[in-house]
């Protein structure tokens, strides 16, 4: 259900350049509210990977997004973005999104460069990272 999505998160998702079939990486996405909206927009040929450092957050996302996970349109990974390693064979993602992620939004800047490097490795060349630090988003070009 997406009716419980806050107006702020809805505005963030509305601002993303999403299209059917995209692969989207959401950093700090637990418990999955924005990811469910994104999964609807990228459709059954797309995929959303929610990455969150919180074990409890990942558990909540798995519960809240059980239908999307079962359908194969979403998966969840417990990891800090600055330590992100995708499982072997994972196809790179087209776009990344991060809302309220301290290492990316300036609250914990010491790990920012490492986090950006890890994200660049997980994304297709030239992919963009969208942060909720703008109105409504700031865009960072990663890689190639």
Structural class from helices and strands?
alpha/beta
Parts with pLDDT < 50 across at least 5 consecutive residues: none
Helix content: 25-40%
How do the SSEs run, as a string of H and E? HEHEHHEEHHEE
Strand order of the largest sheet: 3-2-1-4-5-6
First CA to last CA: what distance?
A: 37 Å
What radius of gyration results from the CA coordinates?
Answer: 14 Å
Write a brief caption for the model:
Helix content is 35%, strand content 24%.
Write structural notes for this entry:
With 144 residues, the chain is of the alpha/beta class. Helices cover 35% and strands 24% of the residues. The protein is built from six helices and six strands, in the order αβαβααββααββ. A six-stranded mixed beta sheet has the order 3-2-1-4-5-6. The radius of gyration is 14 Å and the shape is globular. The model has no long low-confidence stretch (mean pLDDT 93).
Please give the structural blueprint.
Elements: H1 7-15, E1 23-27, H2 33-42, E2 47-52, H3 55-64, H4 66-71, E3 74-78, E4 93-98, H5 102-105, H6 112-122, E5 123-131, E6 138-141
Parallel strand pairs: 1-2, 1-4, 2-3, 4-5
Antiparallel strand pairs: 5-6
Keywords:
single chain; 144 residues; alpha/beta; six-stranded mixed beta sheet; 6 helices; 24% strand; globular
